[in-house]
Amino acid sequence: MKHQKSINSDHVRRRNVPSPENEQVSKRLTELITPAVWAQQAYYRQLGMRARILTLPLMVAAVLTLIWRQVPSVCELARMLNRQDLLWAKATKVSRQALAQRFLEFPASMFERVLQDLLPQLKLRWQQRTSRPLPEGVSYALSHFEHIWTADGSTLEALFRKLDSLSAVPKGQLAGKICTVIELTSRLPVKIWFHENPYSNDCNFVEDLLNLATAKTLLILDRGFYDFVFFANLIAQQVDFITRLKSNASMEVVKILSSNYRVRDRLINLGTDSEGNPLLKLRLVEIRVGKVWYSYVTSVLNPEILPPYVVADLYRRRWRIEEAFNLVKRLLGLSYLWTGSINGVKLQVWATWLVYAVLLDLGDAVADELALPFDRISLEMVFRGLYHFHHAYSQGQTTDPVKYLSAPSNRDLGVVKAVRKKKGKPLPQLDLSPYPVAIADLDSISSQQFSCLKKSDFSSLYK
Prior knowledge:
463 residues, Transposase Inhibitor Protein From Tn5, Chain A, domain 1
């Protein structure tokens, strides 16, 4: 029997032509990005980059066009640049070889600096939108923390070896690893780091995280960052965290805060040193879903600051960074690396996250227009919906992509996600009580204790 050759689906190029250019979309990109580009002109000259045809503004415009319009190759990009304006850059005669060489040599740090200059502007635009509500758990946590961040690492895909310079590279060699920190409220990237070693552990980024995080910051981390010394250093910097507990963790229960058949909230000593002394005093929150108990540990010891169900809800939202990786890799093409040079890979990394930030701003504007939580908006369908906006715009039916994507008549575009329901009923509200009470525990409560309970303490009874 003949076996089919295995294919990496991430390396399959399913498009043959670029997506169409749209005047309104280009105008939006130009207004957002050009101030950050022009702000880098002094740094560009400081690097000794002489004036040439492929200048800083033109290269940024070309790379963003390559990603945003899903241009299939650098060859096609050269053809487009020879014949049409790309965003704010005018049509320029340039050879394919010159453009390809420029991708290998152009400083990737320029795109990183443009991204870092753009993020404060996007954060301000996010703050000015007040119609779309924040999730309950996030809103509650923001009353105690200035920042809520989540971090994770992701390995880049294998190199293609299409260049002569890569002919000696072993087949299947991965391109490196990135670690990204995003803000859980706006979902904007905060910082991105790149390591050449694709097999490096997430713990190799802990020093970067320690240097980045400041007091009153809450970090949502997966078990890739599970390190007691790292946890102790975060606590020393007044940075709090939430992570999952390992199954083989050695711990000692110090105090029981809540305990019933649905939730267990306890203070624990976690880990021991060589002399048997406890290393960390943390809080263990366990939530039962069906027949399964999910365990979380946090440095926030006071349940008044982070109630048990808020801890679980915030950790559940850590998945937003996985969604971000999925978008930049699968939708925006970071899984298809243009070049094998380290500089070229970095250039693509920063440029792709730059496009992601702009797409995020557009999706948030749609959520604000609809007065819906941002969780209800599909960024992938926002991106794909711009194709339909282009045709409506060319026929004179609309001029605003936000109005078009949020119009009730265009709900079939899938921009708004369907509401998830459980057995035909809407999902219940989040229990914000610091000491949840289950109905099975009411018989053991004295009349005096019962009279002291708040209304929020009974919210879990009606879920």
